[in-house]
Amino acid sequence: MSVREIPMYIDGKPEISQSQDWHDVVNPATQEVVARVPFCTAEEVERAVASGKEAFKAWRKVPLGKRMRIMLKLQALIRDNTAELAALITEEHGKTLPDAEGEVGRGLEVVEHACSITSLQLGELAENAANEVDVYSMHQPLGVGAGITAFNFPIMLPCFMFPLAIATGNTFVLKPSEQDPSSTMRLVELAHEAGVPAGVLNVVHGGPDVANQIADHQDIKALSFIGSTHVGSLLYNRAAAAGKRMQSMMGAKNHCVVMPDANRSQAINNLLGSAFGAAGQRCMANSVVVLVGDAREWLNDIVEGARGMKVGPGTERDADLGPLVSPQAKERVERLITAGEKEGAKLMVDGRGCTVDGYPEGNFVGPTLFADVNADMTIYREEVFGPVLCVVSVETLDDAIEFINANPNGNGTSIFTNSGWVARRFETDIDVGQIGINVPIPVPVAYFSFTGSRASKLGDLGPNGKQAIAFWTQTKTVTARWFEPENVSSGINSTISLG
Hints:
Layout: E1 4-5, E2 8-10, E3 13-15, E4 22-26, E5 33-38, H1 42-59, H2 64-80, H3 82-93, H4 97-114, H5 117-120, E6 125-130, E7 133-141, E8 144-148, H6 156-159, H7 162-167, E9 171-175, H8 182-193, E10 201-203, H9 208-216, E11 220-226, H10 229-241, E12 245-249, E13 254-258, H11 264-276, E14 286-292, H12 299-307, H13 327-342, E15 346-349, E16 368-371, H14 378-381, E17 388-394, H15 397-405, E18 409-410, E19 413-416, H16 420-429, E20 435-437, E21 453-454, E22 457-458, H17 465-471, E23 473-481
Parallel strand pairs: 1-5, 8-9, 8-11, 9-10, 11-12, 13-14, 13-19, 14-17, 16-17, 19-20
Antiparallel strand pairs: 2-3, 4-5, 6-7, 7-23, 12-22, 15-16, 18-21
Helix pairs in contact: 2-4, 2-8, 3-4, 3-8, 9-10, 11-12
């Protein structure tokens, strides 16, 4: 099998980097090198930004209708190429093909939302706000925007960024994860096939040096980041110091509350899928289950469900979870499992030492479940980002709410119940940005904004929905009066009154 060389994308064309620093992209189920990705030079990043800056001069003036038609074409191309995109995701990330296809579908939602740009970017008008004075606002693009994405959703996360950014008239520089870039690059090719002009969407690759250069660059006006809390906090501070607009969607510790009145089989199947799907490598995975009252008696059923899940390569459609993305990720997850044991959590299901026939080199960790977990344990305090489920037991709904609100993160939480009163109480009192009611992974549809909160988010505006339009545009307000040609001034008005 030939090894792909991942290109940059600058000024409308794929281009091989001149960097001497190249990294292997590895199939996590086999350890086979499938591609090589460059860590671009500072000069190449400068060229990508310069291309975006130059293209912005013309792109910002392209009519909304034409931008809409490009998005319409892009959504059709993504839909037609879902199988190819999903196969690339599975090859480099490891998630199962059905999960990868679902990811493409969630990314597609954002592009479909961007097709409504002719109504999303409308301003407001107050006619005759004062004597023959009209006041109106316009939402205009900022200039060059940028995005830095994590490995766990190589299609969905770029779609959280560049479609609405360029639909609103900005140009864009994207730095995808170096761990699984091929599907992202195919997405960028489809965007250009759809009609995105040269320079409007550029791609560079790299590590911390490239990310810092993007955060510091004075010609980049806004930066969107999705990834770890450590990196997101550093980049947020750098970007703020450089005077740019910034959004950082970061780490999480998500909780799933199970009430005793919930549909038992539905709740258990959903919480297991949320915790262990994609091998737990989701920032919205519910990695903590809070069993309330008599629901604590369901623990054995949850354990048996976890034991029955199938681990395998992502290409096997009946697999419930695939490998972790890298040997380093596997080592870290297994180290945290060991820490959980040492700190007194009760290990009910142990996924360490997981083997899959025919894939002896795969980064597999099986579903792992701890009971008797408390808030002081490492497996609770840290985001494991692996197939590890912590089970906490409490007496009442109040106890569950208090426990969750004490956690510093606020990305997502879910509750399973058949009581409308309980659900409403939960959504009112819980201090978390995204809530699922009988929904295990509460990522909202793309025409609603992604609203993680507290330590999971820096910046006032999140991706998608109305907040994304506000993030990628600046508002100009015009106050206008037109005099009749023969109008004679009635004298000097030295007050603030419009008169």
